[in-house]
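Hello K.,

You asked for the raw outputs rather than the summary table, so here they are, unedited. I folded two proteins back to back in the same session to keep the settings identical. This is the first:
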Amino acid sequence: MVTQLKRMRISVDGKNYDVTVEVFEDAGAAVRSQSPALATPTVPSIAGPSPVAAAPLATAGSGTVVCPLSGVVAAIHVQMGQAVKSGDLLLTLEAMKMNTAIRAPRAGTVGQIYAQIGAAVEEGAGLMLIA
């Protein structure tokens, strides 16, 4: 009986999980998970860039622009150091084949950009900092 490890992505209740499974070549064998399916999920990456899992969660008055829904960063419209006004377009998220404009909640300067184009982000993750 030959076994092989394979990486697979499963979806449970609309959330994606990356798992490693051991595949048995024996026709009657089952697939056994090497990592629990309900373990802390990893955010899948689209087109290579790292997900924005390490971005800080915002606190009141912190200046962190928070992701309003889970999706993929389709475009970033500002650069670090750029001055923005309240309501300026910061980035575009794609979720469920629809684009969502993320706008500046206040005027300031873009101090840090945590998001990357093509990266999957979860609701509540910090996308950028406006100082």
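The second followed immediately with the same parameters:
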Amino acid sequence: MATIKNFEDLSVWKEARILSKDIYQLTKKSSYSKELDLKNQIKRSAGSITDNIAEGFERGGNKEFIQFLYIAKGSYGELRSQLYRSVDFDVITEKESAGHIEKAKNISSMLQGFISYLKNSGFKGDKYVLKEPKAIYKNLK
């Protein structure tokens, strides 16, 4: 288990950052040029995930951190919905969306595992010197 001193040390934040970058690259497709609102919304959702993990961590309290992790988890649902809409509006293909949707589901599972861990850990916060057990991320493929 690694000691977590910064949000950048969190595996779930690292995975979310990768997905955010992937979504940004996806929205560079010319087909998104006709759907600017959807393009901007999907980029904001993807960015919101890493931002909420970071903000919750920096708040320094366990309860607030958990609250922000739930917000990040909700943003994953929003991101998946926007990917489905992108398919429905013929902006991207189902094949293009499938990998991103699967990654989002896996990271959402990671978040849920981390939330459960924090709820049961006894940590109260104030700059977590906590251990991040890899077992909480067992659903990540």
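The helical segments are 11-26, 36-59, 62-88, 94-121.

Happy to rerun anything if the numbers look odd on your end.

Regards,
P.
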